[in-house]
Design goal:
Helix content: over 70%
Distance between the termini: 65 Å
CATH architecture: Orthogonal Bundle
CATH topology: Ribonucleotide Reductase, subunit A
Number of strands: 0
Structural class: mainly alpha
């Protein structure tokens, strides 16, 4: 009996951790339009090439929200209370506004955030797997898209800002130094899940700097 109770407790704990991780994923994906609106209102001069990539990114993030929502709903249900929690969220970009000075800064922020998210989603695959093969496939598809976004941001930075790539280490250091600011529905830097940590942030920062090293 005692062994069965311990097993039930472990299963309940695993289910709670899985729901918490998936809820974090869900609310982050739902915040993508907030970031888009902020970018359109901020003073940074953003090119047509950037906006073209941004529109494709935004469409992908909407699909991600729909996919994660379906995984969450199928596993844990959905009700008016959850819907109210989702709709009641309010963004506050003030604590991270200094990361949006210009297009290169925005591209570095986007690339860094996508890279950290990829690592986080991969780290949570054992949790997603407990929800079945369809859920795991859906989350792997999200990971693949995030990887494509990372490569797009890096490509734009290299093509459009080759003469300014020497600024990248300082820009990435500023992003890395902002980790830990309380998340406020800004889409980027939502890294409160236990899967994240300093080692992951440092590895992402170092990789991005290497990928954007001047040639």
């Amino acid at each position: 009996m005692e062994s069965a109770l311990r097993m039930d407790e472990r299963e309940a704990d695993l289910a709670a951790r899985t729901e918490a991780a998936l809820w974090d994923d869900l609310i982050t994906e739902s915040d993508a339009p907030r970031l888009s609106r902020f970018l359109r209102s901020c003073p940074a001069q953003l090119s047509d090439a950037f906006w073209s990539a941004h529109e494709a990114w935004l469409a992908d993030e909407q699909r991600h929200f729909e996919a994660v929502f379906e995984v969450y709903r199928s596993a844990f249900g959905w009700d008016a209370t959850r819907q109210e929690r989702l709709e009641a969220r309010c963004e506050d970009f003030a604590p991270i506004a200094h990361l949006f000075d210009d297009e290169l800064a925005v591209l570095c922020l986007g690339a860094y955030d996508e890279l950290v998210t990829i690592r986080g989603y991969r780290g949570n695959l054992p949790l997603y797997r407990t929800l079945g093969s369809e859920a795991e496939r859906a989350m792997r598809a999200v990971i693949a898209d995030e990887g494509r976004h990372f490569r797009t941001f890096v490509k734009l930075a290299r093509e459009r800002h080759a003469e300014d790539l020497g600024r990248v280490p300082a820009l990435v250091a500023r992003i890395r130094g902002t980790e830990g600011v309380p998340y406020a529905a800004t889409f980027v830097l939502d890294h409160d899940d236990p899967v994240y940590g300093d080692d992951l942030y440092d590895e992402a920062a170092e990789l991005l700097i290497r990928r954007l090293r001047p040639r």
